[in-house]
């Protein structure tokens, strides 16, 4: 089904009106997977203010929608995204009121980085084609990534006289080796999906005709896991990355107790019973049988 854009929050007038979506971003929810498509194929899905503000609204709505168990972000046509829109994201706002520009940049960082990185449901970038500049942030903001072998990636900023900003350079430094990151930042050369896989920028690369099926299979795997624990595992990963070892150990033990205590389906007890008492599953090979 296609998720309906909401133009207003219902209820009290004091509630913040929701941004609509549907013009620059489309959403289709199929069997618990929300397919979120950046939808400016004529502009190779370059990220303009329309995409920024619609994505902020979409992510809020997807978090609240109980039907949605996993998100896939992709692009319409032959492009994932050609990065930030050079005209609508840079030239026009640069010439406009500074406050509007600040608001736009803040909203962009909000969805591409903070919101995506800590999104409470699993997220996958499905890189179907061109992926340049600011689109790396969308790609790395997702938990996992599947690319078409034929996709073309590039940190093209150097080619027209800027550095990979927003938070792109920081993100690239997190997932690529120093040699690879600096090579592509400094040369602006492109690489394909297979090379992206070899460098660890994406998890999987497949021929384009298999892209959707492989992405769906990955989303199905994630959907089958305990969602509360999946969220906690992802949150813990991001936090411990920058913690000293002693703090990380203490945090992880506390987070583990918290997760066991708060998990609505009490997965650890169910899993232990099925393995130790019922002998009905092997945790090394599959997910325990969830009741819901
Ligand atoms: N910003 C604004 N418009 C764009 C962008 C962009 N990033 N990318 C493509 N477009 C527009 C083009 O201006 C063109 O518009 P027009 O039809 O009105 O002339 C349309 O999209 C199609 O672009 P073409 O270049 O004709 O498409 P083609 O398929 O030949 O090439 C490619 C695609 C390689 C992606 C090329 O458009 C390109 O190099 N785009 C810029 C990529 C880039 O450097 N992005 C980084 C931006 S900086 C940043 O993100 C921080």
Structure keywords:
2-enoyl-CoA Hydratase, Chain A, domain 1, 2 domains, 6-stranded mixed sheet, 11 helices, globular, binds acetyl coenzyme *A
Structure commentary:
The chain is α/β, with parallel strands linked by helices. It has two domains: 19-223, 2-enoyl-CoA Hydratase, Chain A, domain 1 (Alpha-Beta Complex); 227-277. 46% of the residues lie in helices and 15% in strands. It is built from eleven helices and ten strands. The strands form two sheets. It has a six-stranded mixed β-sheet with strand order 1-2-3-5-7-10, sandwiched between helices. It has a four-stranded mixed β-sheet with strand order 4-6-8-9. Helix 2 crosses helix 3. Residues 43-44, 46, 82-87, 130, 132-134, 156-157 line the site of acetyl coenzyme *A (ACO).
The CATH homologous superfamily name of the largest domain equals 2-enoyl-CoA Hydratase, Chain A, domain 1
CATH fold-level topology of the largest domain: 2-enoyl-CoA Hydratase, Chain A, domain 1
- Ligand roster: acetyl coenzyme *A
What's the number of structural domains?
2
Number of strands: 10
Strand content: 5-15%
Low-confidence stretches: 6-19
Mean pLDDT: 93
Count of helical regions:
11
The main β sheet shows up as: 6 strands, mixed
Overall CATH class of the largest domain: Alpha Beta
Distance between the termini: 22 Å
Topology:
Blueprint: E1 25-30, E2 33-38, H1 49-64, E3 70-75, E4 79-81, H2 86-95, H3 98-117, E5 123-127, E6 130-132, H4 135-141, E7 144-148, E8 152-154, H5 168-175, H6 178-187, E9 190-192, H7 193-198, E10 204-206, H8 211-223, H9 227-240, H10 245-262, H11 267-277
Helix pairs in contact: 1-3, 2-3, 3-4, 4-5, 9-10
């Amino acid at each position: 089904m296609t998720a309906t854009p909401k133009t207003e929050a219902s209820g009290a007038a004091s509630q913040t009106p929701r941004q609509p979506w549907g013009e620059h971003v489309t959403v289709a929810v199929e069997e618990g997977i929300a397919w979120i498509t950046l939808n400016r194929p004529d502009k190779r899905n370059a990220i303009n203010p329309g995409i920024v503000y619609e994505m902020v609204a979409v992510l809020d709505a997807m978090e609240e929608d109980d039907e949605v168990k996993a998100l896939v972000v992709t692009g319409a046509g032959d492009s994932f995204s050609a990065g930030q829109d050079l005209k609508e994201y840079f030239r026009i706002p640069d010439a406009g009121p500074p406050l509007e520009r600040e608001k736009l940049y803040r909203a962009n960082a909000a969805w591409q980085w903070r919101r995506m990185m800590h999104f409470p449901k699993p997220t996958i970038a499905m890189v179907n084609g061109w992926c340049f500049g600011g689109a790396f942030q969308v790609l790395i903001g997702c938990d996992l990534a599947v690319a078409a072998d034929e996709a073309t990636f590039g940190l093209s900023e150097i080619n027209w006289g800027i550095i990979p900003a927003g938070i792109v350079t920081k993100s690239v430094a997190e997932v690529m080796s120093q040699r690879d990151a600096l090579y592509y930042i400094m040369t602006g050369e492109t690489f394909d999906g297979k090379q992206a896989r070899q460098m660890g920028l994406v998890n999987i690369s497949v021929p384009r005709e298999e892209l959707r099926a492989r992405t769906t299979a990955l989303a199905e795997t994630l959907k089958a896991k305990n969602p509360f624990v999946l969220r906690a595992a992802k949150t813990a990963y991001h936090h411990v990355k920058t913690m000293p070892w002693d703090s990380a150990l203490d945090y992880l033990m506390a987070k583990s107790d918290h997760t066991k205590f708060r998990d609505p389906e009490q997965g650890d007890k169910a899993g232990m019973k099925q393995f130790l008492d019922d002998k009905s599953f092997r945790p090394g090979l599959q997910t325990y049988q969830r009741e819901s």
